[in-house]
Design a protein that fits this description.
By secondary structure, this protein is mostly beta strands. The chain has 3 domains: 108 residues, Phage tail proteins - horseshoe like beta roll fold (Roll), CATH 2.30.300.10; 86 residues, 3-Layer(bab) Sandwich (Phage tail protein beta-alpha-beta fold); 163 residues, no CATH class. 15% of the residues lie in helices and 38% in strands. The strands form 3 sheets. Strands 1, 2, 3, 4, 5, 6, 7, 11, 12, 16, 17, 18 and 19 form a 13-stranded mixed beta sheet that branches. A 3-stranded mixed beta sheet has the order 8-10-9, covered by helices on one side. Strand 1 and strand 2 form a beta hairpin. Helix 3 runs antiparallel to helix 4. The longest helix is centred in the C-terminal third of the chain and has 15 residues. It is flat.
């Protein structure tokens, strides 16, 4: 019976094309790491013989006049192709093996945020534009890479009057977009797909709601679909952000605590522990009330996840690829830890005939607030 899992490798400058058969035959392992908050990356390992055409690939990726080598990885599981990674090569490494008579070529790269971090555009003006419009203008430069903006407008636009002040860019596009996201209480990341060569650039609040993925089962005999899963409860990590709101008339400053549960960070359990620490966000006094609240909500959401889980699974047994930045259900872990979780990160480890994942789960409460969790996809 043929394997339901197929891996497709596309390589090229700017536009990626299917890799030739000798390159595919030399590929021994693939590792992809996807994070909900930071950059995503990949690592490809090849067998490198002296007469291998990979010698040319190594020269291209290691310093030829071609400045960017793009890599796209597609995993076809159950007849459904999914883009696992869309990025560029950052560096290569050759590891000789005298015993085997060949070497190993290791190609390491990052997602397309690496392209956005190449040129310093400090001083570029944005007269009369809100932060979300500035982000759209910066992302427009990368349409050739198939990057499609998905930008959520700021809640309270703060437009500088051009005759008084013209905001200008500081640093690279990536650095400035991340700075604007932090000031608005937003996050920024790239999500590859849904088609090869296309990437969604999300700039907006981190949303922990949606349709959950099929449940991860532990201690359920034949229904168990994970290899390992461990949980931790750390209530001391949560903090209560204290933002400061300044009255424009009296110039008095009022402190406002932001609870760990907000519309953007709903409770994923019944028992939400109260934060044990108070953190003053003093820089919020110079912001508008809505902006200060958004920054506080982002900080509260960042530290509210007192329950975390680390585990691993076999994709063939689980039935599909576990995706980061989405919800997933847990069954069989006990009363305190069953229920829905947010997938904080997922690492893909692919070899011939094998596809495994390690993952990290987060949530802000104990005891499930749902009577059941979905066992299969909707």
């Amino acid at each position: 019976m043929a394997s339901p899992l197929y891996l497709t490798l596309l390589v090229g400058p700017v536009e990626a094309f299917p890799a030739p058969k000798p390159v595919i035959d030399a590929l021994t392992s693939v590792e992809v790491t996807v994070s909900a908050t930071g950059k995503s990356g990949f690592q490809l390992s090849f067998t490198l013989a002296n007469s291998s055409p990979l010698q040319t690939f190594f020269l291209l990726a290691g310093g030829s006049p071609v400045p960017i080598i793009r890599v796209i990885l597609l995993a076809t599981f159950g007849g459904l192709p999914q883009v696992v990674m869309d990025g560029v090569v950052k560096h290569t490494e050759v590891v000789p093996d005298a015993m085997q008579g060949s070497s190993k070529l290791v190609v390491t790269g990052e997602d397309l945020t690496a392209v956005m971090d190449l040129i310093d555009f400090s001083g570029f003006p944005f007269p009369g534009l809100t932060p979300d419009l500035r982000v759209l203008i910066m992302l427009a430069k990368y349409a050739m890479f198939g990057i499609v903006p998905n930008v959520v407008p700021v809640i309270t636009p703060d437009i500088e009057v051009p005759v008084d002040k013209i905001p200008s860019q500081k640093g690279t596009d990536l650095a400035y977009i991340q700075q604007l996201a932090k000031e608005a209480g937003y996050v920024f990341y790239l999500e590859p797909g849904p088609l090869p060569g296309m990437t969604q650039a999300y700039w907006g609040p981190q949303i922990k709601i949606g349709v959950p993925q099929p449940a991860l089962n532990v201690n359920m005999d034949a229904w168990t679909n994970v290899e390992s899963l461990n949980f931790r409860y750390e209530p001391q990590t949560a903090v209560l952000p204290l933002v400061f709101i300044q009255d424009q008339i009296t110039k008095l400053v009022f402190p406002l605590p932001i609870p760990p549960v907000t519309p953007l960070n709903p409770p994923l359990g019944v028992i939400v522990p109260f934060p044990q620490k108070i953190e003053e966000l003093e820089d919020t006094a110079k912001l508008s009330p809505a902006q200060a609240i958004m920054v506080g909500m982002a900080r509260a959401s960042e530290t509210a996840d007192v329950v975390s889980g680390d585990g691993s699974l076999d994709v063939l047994r689980y039935g599909q690829i576990l995706k980061a930045r989405q919800l997933v259900g847990i069954r069989g872990a006990g009363l305190a830890f069953d229920g829905l979780y947010y997938v904080e990160s997922a690492k893909h480890q692919i070899k011939l005939g094998e596809y495994k994942q390690s993952f990290t789960l987060k949530r802000n409460a104990l005891v499930s607030n749902l009577p059941v969790v979905p066992a299969v996809a909707f």
